[in-house]
Design a protein that fits this description.
The structure holds two protein chains of two kinds. Chain A is an alpha+beta fold. Chain A has ten helices and ten strands. The chains are: A alpha+beta, B mainly alpha. The structure holds copper (II) ion (2 copies).
Chain lengths: 390, 527
């Protein structure tokens, strides 16, 4: 009787605990934590296949490794001259040599079979239900939902960006998800086969979210394919995995997986915003107020330019020239615009043409007027000026 | 190194020419050039090591603490180039120069003047490469793999990089041709191929690898050069080219390069373990065949560096299978070394300690290599610290440990003095413990999601990075002890006998210690 009760209590409390934990997991994955030592099982069938392949091989190589260590340590313990060991004189044995050639071969064969099956599954993008195009830039990501007409850029979040400066105003440890957070995460539905088309605009990057189970290079001029079907709502974080220049460490990836209903709601909201919001509308060429331009420009500057050209526009060495008092900034308007739109070849100054006309007008205006640059009479750039120069 | 003329038939021969510059600048003597190569390698080991210290110091804590990310990228790039082309390859070539003639009973290398030129190209190449640190815009920062389009953003350091790679490539091709010519033509009578010491075999195969793949690297970087300055578009999609093609060409060089950095190590360990186990090397002929098969396989596995670029399924499967096959001959080698120790009569002088550590720690690197071979999981491992841990186990506790073992093993033959055994053991234990503290946690970092080549990381990676950095600093400091031991041994110490080690076998141990300036001018008889 009593025991039955106890058992039921135990089962109930375990279930409650399990629910508690899984509820936590749905909000924020508990795989990313200090002292983490292993791959995630992840939330897609591909990540789970990768994980089980990983664990299988891990145990096999661990057993082999332990055997090698044990064999060597045994010899070291047993066959030492100081213990009076007399050396044998044999120096080969065909049987033994055949055995230790054949056995590893068979073990490898055993691993190769499931690995082949996994690989075939990974490459099979057929039957997808939606498509997201991912484009890598120095140093941010662009996401396009091909069927929904949603399109945005995803950059390192503001707090991380402030904390990653040298002598920062806030310490990395005080930022939640330091270097693993973005301004606009990629939002996707669960239980939907998503096809990713991956490419890049400047150099090669690599799009990697460990809990989806793979990374894929984004290569300028080529389009790669990959897929994921996420099983659980939650937030999954990753990073660029291919060295792509100075800020390679600072272009994280955040995927927010929502239930189908929540996702639908998000899509509707986005589509409304695209029509209503002025801040990111590339077609709107109407003039803006000086104050708005300066405010928007400062934002863009902090996010895009400050890392190299520094907070006060003082630059850094010859590599990143000063913008305060710069001839280029204060000189010919067209040349100044083209530096931002086309970049400067042979330097690390890349093209920022991916920004909207309004953002570019803002940053052009801001740099031309900040840090005493307006001493020579400030100068305003309007979205239409940028559009002309494109 | 004062040459003591000893034999009557040597009396009409001379020692080194008088005068420091005359001797070292113009020398065509294989022992002098061997010393030059090794001293150069040691110097570069410390320059590359200093760069590694900068890297570990920046990664000690999250946040950007010491250097700018752009400078950090210069450090990772230059660390790799300096260690591969400046430290490990020259050290092995130096060992080859010094040892191959005395191991096969030849009076010198086959092409002594080429030998001199091949060496002196090295400092020239490295002056070019290291000078980029002082250019506006700094040194190369796109990774030692030089992937376009990123590498084309370099600015002024770019042409220096290309020219330096060319010069270093020419140097190692000439050095290798010399080694092949020496081994094939200058063996003492009776020294058949299958009687050669394993170190000579390993180098014969390595030299063929170098001659085969260095020109491929030269071609790849030349295409980068013309893409940058002469309007070609080999690697630019906008002009009809393909950035991934560079990676194919680069890794067609790059994977054999990995074995160029490890096959001579196999040879060294195959000499040292039998000596201190007082038992012949187990399975000599299977060792030779295993080395040759590894070399052959190295040409058909390059795609395993590129599982994430979007190769066709069939290509990925081919490269996966071929890469897994490498484990078979590599396993044979490890089992052979174990069998050599089995029922031996072992003592544990410093070279033996380093060799045993080599066998064990190289095994760790080899086994993580098996994991990395699996394409579906490599999509997780690729470009993470798991890979960094893997190749440092192979290159540091593999290649570098074998070089240290070799130095302790042959130093008495070179200098005529025994090194300080007690300090040698200190050096061994400090290095072995710290190197594991340095690299083992990096497996965890990689699996837990930390990409490589980043100057700053999420706070979750803080603990293991700090541990790894502490290991790195201790390992770096321990190498100062190595230099001290070498200098002390060169200056004096207990007189070494000609055999030096109780179990030493081979022609070099029939020579007095230190070996005279000229040796085996009359070929020895090999039974
Ligand atoms: Cu990147
Ligand atoms: Cu490889």
């Amino acid at each position: 009787m009593n025991q039955n009760k106890l058992t039921r209590l135990f089962v109930a409390s375990t279930a409650a605990l399990a629910m508690l934990f899984s509820a936590g997991a749905a909000a924020e994955s508990d795989w990313r934590r200090p002292w983490g030592v292993n791959l995630p099982e992840g939330v897609t069938s591909l990540s789970q296949v990768a994980y089980s392949m990983h664990m299988l091989t891990f145990w096999i190589v661990t057993v082999i490794g332990v055997a090698v260590f044990a064999g060597v340590f045994f010899s070291v313990w047993k066959y030492r001259k100081s213990q009076g060991a007399k050396p044998a004189t044999w120096h080969h044995s065909t049987t033994v040599e055949i055995v230790w050639t054949a056995v590893p071969f068979l073990i490898l064969l055993g691993i190769a079979v499931p690995a082949t099956q996994a690989m075939i599954k990974m490459e099979d993008t057929s039957g997808y239900e939606m498509t997201v195009k991912v484009t890598g830039y120095q140093w941010m990501w662009e996401y396009e939902y091909l069927d929904e007409g949603i399109h945005f850029y995803s950059r390192l979040d503001r707090d991380s960006d402030r904390a990653r400066q040298r002598n920062p105003e806030i310490r990395p440890r005080d930022v939640e998800h330091y270097l693993l957070n973005v301004d606009n995460p990629l939002v996707v539905p669960v239980n939907t086969k998503i096809r990713f088309l991956l490419t890049a605009n400047d150099v090669i990057h690599s799009w990697w979210v460990p809990e989806l189970g793979w990374k894929k290079d984004t290569i300028p001029g080529f389009v790669n394919e990959a897929w994921a079907e996420i099983q659980e709502p939650g937030t999954y974080r990753g990073q660029c995995a291919e060295l792509c220049g100075r800020d390679h460490a600072f272009m994280p990836i955040v995927v927010v997986a929502k239930t189908e209903e929540d996702y639908e709601a998000w899509v509707a909201e986005q589509q409304e915003e695209v029509n209503g919001d002025v801040a990111v509308d590339d077609d709107d060429l109407s003039d803006m107020e000086m104050d708005d331009l300066m405010a928007l420009g400062e934002d863009v500057y902090d996010n895009q330019c400050m890392a190299c050209h520094q907070a006060g526009g003082e630059g850094m060495g010859d590599m990143f020239p000063a913008l305060a008092g710069s001839d280029k900034v204060l000189g010919d308007r067209d040349e100044y615009k083209s530096i931002l739109l086309d970049g400067v070849s042979g330097t690390t100054m890349q093209s920022f043409a991916s920004l909207s006309n309004q953002e570019l007008a803002g940053v052009l205006t801001y740099v031309r007027n900040a840090w005493g640059n307006d001493d020579d009479g400030g100068d305003v750039f309007q979205p239409a000026d940028v559009e002309d120069a494109r | 190194m004062t040459a003591t003329t000893h034999d009557t038939h040597d009396a009409h021969h001379h020692g080194p020419p008088p005068g420091f510059f005359k001797r070292w600048l113009f020398t065509t003597n294989h022992k002098d050039l061997g010393v030059l190569y090794m001293v150069f390698g040691l110097l570069m080991f410390f320059i590359g090591g200093a760069m590694a210290m900068v890297i570990r110091a920046e990664l000690f804590q999250p946040g950007l603490n010491l250097v700018d990310p752009h400078f950090f990228n210069q450090m990772t790039t230059m660390h790799a180039l300096v260690m591969i082309f400046g430290a490990v390859m020259p050290a092995f070539t130096g060992l080859a120069n010094w040892l191959i003639p005395v191991q096969i009973g030849a009076p010198d290398m086959a092409l002594p003047r080429i030998n001199n030129w091949a060496f002196w190209l090295l400092p020239a190449g490295f002056v070019l490469l290291l000078a980029t640190l002082f250019l506006p815009g700094g040194a190369p920062a796109g990774g030692w793999t030089m992937y376009p389009p990123l590498v084309l953003q370099l600015g002024d350091s770019f042409p220096f990089l290309i020219l330096a790679v060319h010069i270093l490539g020419i140097s190692s091709i000439m050095g290798s041709i010399n080694i092949v010519a020496t081994i094939l033509n200058m063996r003492a009578p009776g020294m058949t191929l299958m009687k050669m010491p394993m170190f000579v075999w390993a180098w014969l195969i390595t030299a063929f690898l170098i001659v085969a793949v260095m020109p491929v690297l030269a071609g790849a970087v030349t295409m980068l050069l013309t893409d940058q300055y002469f309007g070609t578009s080999f690697f630019s999609a906008a002009g009809g080219g393909d950035p991934v093609m560079f990676q194919h060409i680069f890794w067609f060089f790059g994977h054999p390069e990995v074995y160029i950095l490890i096959l001579p190590a196999f040879g060294i360990v195959s000499a040292i373990i039998p000596t201190f186990a007082r038992k012949p090397l187990f399975g000599y002929s299977s060792m030779v065949y295993a080395t040759a098969s590894i070399a052959f396989l190295s040409f058909i596995v390059w795609g395993h560096h590129m599982f994430t670029v979007g190769m066709p399924l069939a290509g990925q499967l081919f490269f996966m299978y071929a890469t897994m096959l490498v484990a078979v001959p590599t396993g044979v080698k490890i089992f052979n070394w174990m069998a050599t120790m089995w029922q031996g009569s072992m003592t544990f002088e410093t070279p033996m300690l380093f060799s045993i550590a080599f066998v064990l720690l190289f095994t760790i690197g080899g086994l993580s290599g098996v994991m990395l071979a699996l394409a579906p999981v490599d999509l997780q491992y690729h470009d993470t610290y798991f890979v960094v841990a893997h190749f440092h186990y192979v290159l540091v506790t593999g290649a570098v440990f074998s070089i240290m073992a070799a130095v302790y093993f042959w130093l008495p033959k070179w200098t005529g003095h025994m090194y300080d055994e007690k300090l040698g053991k200190w050096h061994f234990w400090l290095s072995t413990i710290s190197v594991n503290v340095l690299f083992f946690p990096q497996h965890f970092l990689g699996l837990a999601g930390m990409p490589r080549r980043i100057p700053d990381y999420a706070v979750q990676f803080a603990e293991f990075n700090m541990i790894s950095s502490i290991g790195g600093f201790v390992f770096g400091l321990a190498q100062l002890l190595f230099v001290y031991i070498i200098v002390k041994c060169v200056r004096g110490g207990q007189k070494a006998s000609s055999g030096v080690w109780e179990g030493a076998k081979g022609l070099e141990w029939t020579l007095p210690s230190p070996a005279p300036y000229h040796t085996f001018e009359t070929p020895p008889a090999v039974k």
